[in-house]
Design a protein that fits this description.
mainly alpha, 429 residues, 17 helices, globular
């Protein structure tokens, strides 16, 4: 009972940090229009800032493949959370555009390189293979709860102060304070990891050597790369959800205040719905996270194709909101479980950090180009319906690619399970 209680405390602390650390890097979700107005940014410039974030993330994840299995989460997680908070204080000064690019690069360094792979590793190790879908599902749902509360509180501060530049600055400082508090709590409540320092024969060896051996093992595992590519396709679709916000504003003439509230629901509240549903369906419905992702991607592609050809200019705004949120719920159900196949492919637990880092490196690399590409297309077509339809068409393309990749992964898992079953039969004979 005591062990279970400690696991729940650890899980809650991890959720609180995970739900607050990305508020600043995702400032666009609730404050897309204020960013344009008070920071004087175009759609393309916001996209470029997010691409800088992606570049730092991708390059930095090479380092995280090593550090995530080398150092304790009690060191890395608080360090990352507090680092993000300090960068947020800097961003609240409304620096120049180059300063904004530097700020988003630092947010990626702390949030994606140092924090995220360690978080994923920590969550995976909280349960066995039968619980992975639900663990990651409830992580996503918990993040959604924290996301929504914190984001609506920041939006409330912004509105209370007259939707002014001062209100926007105060909202950013609020985000910074919350993530620093999360870092302090993590330091006091998370336990130290037991970093392995012996080889298979029990001999004492360098932790650096073991960490590098784990990196090599992970890099040589084909199934880890296929899992990573499945995440890549899903994340490419996910990037497009951001552009439902300007889409509803430009095509449906959504009011600015409603844009902020919709952005919070679209990016955060849907986690509370998609997370548990995705985790439950993966564990109890399909009994396979990979199968669930395959079916969800098929549904995703069909839904977006239908959405593209709807007569948006003559449709009711609330219908448009419901349709986009419904699509977002499908994507968040996939996001909640797209790391679960790392356990399904029987990844050794001692290289969990390296495996999660590779999956993050490849899986989140669409940030290198998707936001900038989508933003450029919308600006190039002067925010007209055609530009948005092209963006949505690209999302369909990635969904179809995801169907192909997850089908390949399902075949690999089936063959691996058959091989393990055969070996087990031979050993018991």
């Amino acid at each position: 009972m005591a062990v279970r209680s400690i696991r729940w405390v650890t899980f809650i602390i991890l959720i609180f940090g995970a739900g607050s650390i990305f508020k600043l890097s995702s400032l666009k979700d609730a404050f897309y229009v204020p960013m344009q107005e008070f920071m004087h940014l175009s759609n393309t410039q916001i996209g470029v800032a997010l691409s800088v974030y992606g570049i730092v993330q991708v390059i930095g994840n090479f380092a995280s493949i090593y550090i995530s299995d080398r150092f304790s989460k009690r060191i890395l997680i608080p360090f990352a959370l507090c680092g993000v908070g300090v960068v947020g204080i800097y961003i609240s000064t409304f620096p120049s555009y180059w300063g904004i690019l530097v700020g988003w690069g630092l947010l990626a360094l702390f949030g994606e390189v140092v924090y995220w792979p360690v978080l994923l590793k920590s969550v995976r190790l909280l349960g066995d293979s039968s619980m992975q879908g639900r663990l990651f599902g409830f992580l996503e749902a918990g993040r959604g709860v924290v996301d929504t509360i914190v984001a609506f509180a920041a939006l409330g501060i912004f509105l209370l102060l007259g939707s002014s530049a001062g209100g926007f600055k105060s909202a950013i400082l609020f985000y910074s304070a919350v993530v620093i508090v999360a870092g302090i709590l993590a330091f006091f409540f998370l336990d130290d990891d037991k970093i392995k320092d012996t080889d298979e024969s029990g001999q004492k060896v360098s932790r650096n050597k073991l960490a590098w051996e784990g990196v090599v093992r992970a890099l040589k595992t084909p199934s880890i790369w296929v899992v990573s590519m499945s995440i890549f396709t899903i994340y490419s679709v996910y990037c497009g959800l951001t552009y439902f916000i300007p889409f509803l504003r430009d095509i449906y003439a959504m009011p600015v205040a409603l844009v902020g509230a919709y952005g919070i629901v679209n990016q955060y509240a849907l986690k509370m719905v998609g997370g548990p549903i995705g985790g439950f369906l993966a564990d109890k419905g399909t009994h396979s996270a990979t199968k669930f992702l395959n079916y969800a991607l098929i549904l995703c592609a069909i839904a977006m194709i239908v959405f593209i050809f709807l007569p948006h200019k003559s449709m009711n705004i609330y219908l448009g909101m419901c349709l986009t949120l419904g699509f977002g719920a499908i994507v968040f159900a996939m996001r909640a479980t797209f790391f679960a196949p790392v356990d399904e492919i029987k990844t050794p637990r001692e290289i969990s950090g390296a495996a999660m880092s590779i999956a993050s490196l490849v899986g989140y690399s669409p940030q290198l180009f998707c936001f900038a590409l989508y933003g450029f297309i919308i600006d190039y077509f002067h925010k007209e319906l055609l530009g948005y339809r092209i963006v949505f068409g690209i999302m369909v393309f990635f969904a179809i690619c995801g169907v192909i990749v997850t089908s390949i992964l399902m075949g690999m898992i089936k063959r691996n399970n058959a091989r393990l079953k055969k070996l087990d039969t031979l050993q018991t004979a």
